[in-house]
Structure formats: C-alpha cells, structure tokens
Amino acid sequence: MRIVMWSKWASNLVFVALLGFVVLMVYWQQKLVTLEQEQKALGTKLGRMASLPSGKHEIGAFGDEIINSYEPLQDSNQGNVVDYSDTAVILYNRIPKTGSTSFMGMAYDLCSKNSFHVIHLNTTKNSHVMNPADQLRFAQNVSTWFERRPVIYHGHLGFIDFSSLGVPLRPLYINIIRDPLDRLISYYYFLRYGDDFRPEVVRKKQGNKETFDECVTRQGHDCDPLNLWMQIPFFCGHHSSCWEAGNSWALQQAKSNLARSYFLVGTTEGMEDFIGVLEVSLPRFFRGALKYFQDGGKSHLRKTYGKQIPNKETIRTIRKSKIWQMEQDFYMFAKKNFNSIKKRTLTTGGMVFPQQFRYEKIRPK
Q1: Tens-level pLDDT at each residue, the chain (365 residues)
Q2: Could you please report the per-residue DSSP string of 176-243?
Q3: Which of 71, 276, 284, 341 has the most CB atoms less than 10 A away?
Q4: Which residues have CB under 8 Å from 180's CB, separation 6+?
C-alpha cells in the first residue's frame, strides 16, 4: 500500500515539475516577444525623429531634413510621454563678482515665461562649503524635490560631487568665471563704494578712499594676492586642500571637475555668448534669453562704483605672485574650452549651427 502511494505521489510531483517548466518557457517566450516589440517601437520612434516636420522645439536643419532633438520619447510599457527637460536640474555654484547677479536676474525674469523654478541656496554665515551631513541632505533634497522641477539652484558654494553621495541625480553644472585680477579689483572697490544694484547698502569698507594701487604699494590686506584664490577652490570642491591658497593639487582637481562635471562654463566678458550657447543647448530654460539680455537692460544690471584701472607697476607686482599665476592658468583653461564650444555652436554672425548628427541604419525595421 505504501509503495503504491509513494508511486502516485512521485508521479504527481513529476507532473507538477513538467507543468511548471512549460509555464516558465511560455513566460520567457512572451517576454522575448515583448522585448522585440519594444525594440521595434523604439527603432520606429528614432527613425521618425530624423524626418519629423517642423514643429515645437525645432533647432535647425540637417541637410534636407528637420531634426527635432527635444521631442519627448514615449514609454512603451506605460504609454507615458517622458520629457527629460521637464525634470532637469541645473546647479549654478556662482562665484562672487563674476556677473552672477546679472545672470540670475535674467533667470528670475524668465522663469515664469518659460515655466521653470529658481531656488537660491543660502548657507549659514555665507559659507562656501558644507559639512558632510549637509551635503548629503542637500543632495537628497535636490534629487527628490520633483514638484520644483525643472529648476535652477544657485548659491555661492564650492563644487559638490553628487556621485559620491549615493544619489542618482547628476545635475547640470554651469558657471561663469572672470579674469582673476579684474575680479579682485572689482571686489576691492565694491567693499568701499558698493554698486548700482543696491546703492543704499552700507559696505564693509565704506569711507575708505585708498586706491588699489596705494594698497598694493603698502602691501595691504585687501589687495593681497592671496585674495585671488577664489575660482580654483569653487571648482575644486569641498576637500580641505581646495581652500589652501597655492595648492597645486587643487588647481588640477578644479580643471578635472570643470572638464568632467560641468555642462558649460562661460566668462564674464563673454556673457552674451555664454547665454547664446545656453539658449541653444537648454531652450527649456533659456528660450528668449539672449534677446532679453541684449534688449532688457540686464547686461548692465550691476556696476561697481569708484572702480579705477590699476597702473602698470601694480599689474607687474600682482603677476609675480604664484596665486595669480595659478588662477590665471585656470582662467585661461576655462576660457579656451568655452571658446572652442562657442565655435562649434554659434556662427560668426551669432547664428546657430544646425544639428550635426542624425540616426540611420536602424534595425530591425
């Protein structure tokens, strides 16, 4: 009797195993069919993008075809339209006295028109660095605050490496840099005379009439070349060595971060071209920005009062310093890269180059 029951149980077990195997095979076969269908749908979508008629977000022609780079893709599983520009996060870790107020004034005026958000990051005591806990909080907040996207965050803060903080977000970093000596001179006179943006504010050195030339002659604190050490640490980041004036590792790290992690870095004197490239590259944010900047008076938003051009002896003295040489090296590195990008993006007359890639030979059809 036991042998008969055991035999029947074994037969049932074999039947269940075979049935499970058949079900599993059917399931994976269906998955393969679904994947093939998704691949065909994506191929059709990409092929259609290369031959779309003129429409919204059009940026130019490639040969005889109109290319639409900003048309959203469709999720083949859910049927939802995915527009990545609507979830974009721009992080502008602005450097003092580089024209950042002028730039952000334009962004604030455009945000309603172009339907994006702008958020200022205000740090305690205007610190340019955060402790590790605050870096993590900030990265997590930015990564999950979907209600405020698309968005531009801005603040006087050193570079933060989001990839080291365990969050999936990689923000589009942008920045503007300025000739180091020009930036220092502007800041020197700003502390004494203020500017036309908020002329009523009493500045830290107000009443001090000493010129920059006189300060350099007597080797004063406010004109010390050590004060040039600003743009390198902002790009270098939060490592303690970044903020050690004259640290050679900091210079190399700043260059590395600019090359690897920044979408675009422009110059103060080339602000108009910087905005032009941004409008072409990120129209979701900067559509109409160049005309607004040219015609709306924002290119002259902030001017420092009382600024005087230094004499040749002052310039020679400053240029002898290691700090100036390093900051100038970084400035020229950034400027050369921006000029190269500008040439690939804008024509001599300020027109936009047409899109220079397309999709073809998509298989299976």
Answers
A1: 555 455 666 666 666 666 767 666 766 666 665 656 555 554 544 444 444 433 333 333 223 332 333 445 455 455 555 578 899 999 999 999 999 999 999 999 999 999 999 999 999 999 999 999 999 999 999 999 999 999 999 999 999 999 999 999 999 999 999 999 999 999 999 999 887 666 656 566 677 889 999 999 999 999 999 999 999 999 999 999 999 999 999 999 999 999 999 999 999 999 999 999 999 999 999 999 999 998 875 555 567 778 899 999 999 999 999 999 999 999 999 999 999 999 999 987 666 778 889 999 999 98
A2: EE--HHHHHHHHHHHHHH-BSSSTTSPPTTTT----HHHHHHTT-STT-GGGGTTHHHHHH-SSGGGG
A3: 276
A4: 228, 230, 231, 324, 327, 328, 331
Catalytic residue among 57, 120, 128, 154: 154
Residues, the chain, total?
365
Residue 74's φ and ψ, nearest 5 degrees, are -115, 135
Question: For residues 136 and 144, is the Cβ–Cβ distance under 8 A?
Answer: no
pTM metric for this prediction: 0.76
Shortest CA distance to 226 belongs to which of 247, 211, 208, 256? 247
The answer to whether 359 touches 47, Cβ cutoff 8 Å, is yes
Neighbour count for residue 359 (Cβ, 10 Å): 14
Q: How far apart are CA 88 and CA 1, in angstroms?
A: 72
Catalytic residue among 120, 156, 238, 239: 156
Strand-strand pairing, 73-74 and 81-82:
antiparallel
CA separation for the pair 153, 214 (Å, rounded): 39
Distance CA 216, CA 235 (A): 27
Active site residue 156: yes
